[in-house]
Amino acid sequence: MTSIVSIRQLTKTYGNGFQALKGVDLDIEEGEILALLGPNGAGKTTLISIICGIVNPSSGTVKVGGYDVVKDFRKTRSLIGLVPQELTTDQFETVWNTVCFSRGVYGCKPDPALIERILKDLSLWTKKDSMLRELSGGMKRRVLIAKALSHEPKVLFLDEPTAGVDVNLRRDMWLVVEKLRESGVTIILTTHYIEEAEEIADRVGVIDGGSLLLLEEKAKLMTKLGRKQLRLELAAPLSALPESLESYNLTLSDDRTTLIHDYQGEEAQDSIASLLATLARENIHFRDLSTRQSSLEDIFVALVAEKAGERA
Amino acid sequence: MNFEAVKSIYYFEMARMRRTLLQSVLSPVITTSLYFIVFGTAIGSRIQTIEGVSYGSFITPGLIMLTLLTQCVSNGSIGIYFPKFTGTIYEILSAPVAMTEVLLGYVGAAASKGLIIGLIILATASFFVEIRIAHPFMMILFLVLTAITFSLFGFIIGIWAKNFEQLNVVPMLVVPPLTFLGGSFYSIDMLPPFWQAVSHLNPVLYLVSGFRWSFYEIADVNPMISVGMIALFLVICLSVLGWMFKTGYRLRN
User: Hey, are the CB atoms on A15 and B252 less than 8 Å from each other?
Assistant: First the structure.
C-alpha cells in the first residue's frame, strides 16, 4: 500500500493561542476508509482543514499524492474533495448551478454528463432545479457531497457526514461511501458516532487534545482492546463452582442460573474450547449461550478517559 | 492560471446581480433621477452656470462617481463577506485557485456591476440635462480605474468585516460624506481658502475633479494629478491585499 496523504509533525496554534494540533504524524493509504474519532474540539476539523488548504499550518508538512499542500496547492487541492461539517449552501442557488459552480472553481471544464451521473447516484436528479433553501437537511448534505465529487477527487474528506441525519439517510450515506471506495476513492471521515466507524471504516484513528492517540486497523483494534463476555444459561441452577473451573475467569450470576466468562480479545480464544470441554466433563449442561463484544464506543471511552487520567 | 475558476466566480457574482435586479440596478437609477429632479431641475434652475456649464450638467459626473463608489465598495465587500458569513467560503479556500484568481473573479464582477450602473446613470442623466463628453477615452479610463480601485477597497472591507455592522460602515458612513464634500455638487473654488485646503485631503475630490474634466474640461485639480491619485490608491489597495493573502488574514487563520 502506498500512502496518498502523509502528515509529519503537524502543529497548529490559532491566533488566540489555542493549540489545536500538537505534532500529528499520520499516513493515509490509497483506497482505504479511515475514520477519525474524537470528542468535540479534539482537532479533527483543524486537521482536515489544513490538509484541504483552508487553514495554514503552524509547522510540519502535509503531502497529498506526493505534493506539498502549501507549495503545490493546485495539485493537492485538485486531488481532494471536501464535505464540510456545517450545512453551508448558497440558499438561492439551484442544485444544478451550485454543483456546476464547484466543478468550475476546481478548474475543470463543464461536464454536464458527469454532473448528471453524480446527481443521479445521490438521488438528487429530481431536485436539480430546486433552490437549496427548499431542500431538507439530508438533501443539503447530499448536495454538499455532490459538490465535493464534481471534480472527481481521489481523496474525499467527510467531516461529520451524518451529524443530524436520520437513520435511513445514514444507511444511504454509507452505501454511497462504499460505492465510492469501490471506485478507488480514498475516504477520510470524522465522526463521533462510533457505530459509523465500526460499520464502514478500515482503520480507526483516535484524536484528542490535538494528538493522535491511536491508529489501528478496526478489526485489530477490536480484538486487541475489545473485551468479550460469554454467558451460559444453565439447564439447572448451580450451587457452587466446581474446583476444576476455578482457573477460568468465571462468575456465577446471583440467581445461580448463568455462568459469565470475561475474556480479552485474542489472548483467550482457545480457552473457550477448553472451558466448554471442562463443563461437559463436569456434567454441567447449558440451555443457551451468547457472547458480547465491547463496541468501539466502549474502547473509545476507555481510551480517552485513560489519556485524560495521564494528563491530570 | 485557473481560468475556469475565475470565470465561475465571475458568472456566479453576476448571476447574483441578475437575481436582485430591482435592488442592484433600479434603485441607483431612481435615486439618481431624484437628485436630478431636485438639484438639477428644481434648485438648479435658480443657480447660475458654473464655469459656463449648467448646474444640472455640472453635477452629473459627481453623481455618477457617488453611485459608482458606493456600488463598487458594497458589491466588492458583500461578494467576499457573504460566503464568509454563510460558510460557503470553505469551497473557495479549498479549491486549487490562488487568491489572486479569487480576487479577479470577485473584483471583476463588482467592477463590472459598478460600470454597468455608472453607464446606466449616465444614460439616465442625458434625459434630464445636456451632456457633453470632451475626452471620451479619459472618461472611460477614470470610470474603469475608479471601479477597479473601489471594488478592491470593498474586497478589503469584506475580508476585514466581522459582522454586517462593520461591513456597512464604510459604504454608508465614509463614502457618502467624502463624495458630498469632494466637490460632487459644487466647485471647491466656491469654498473659503481654509476649506479648499482641507478638501485637498479628500481622495474623492481627485476622482470627481478628473472625471468632470473628461466631460467639460473644467477641474479643481490637474487631471494628471487625478489619474496619479487613483493609481496611488490602487497600489495601496493591492499592497494591503497582498499582505492579507500572504498572512491569511481573517481567511485562513
Answer: no
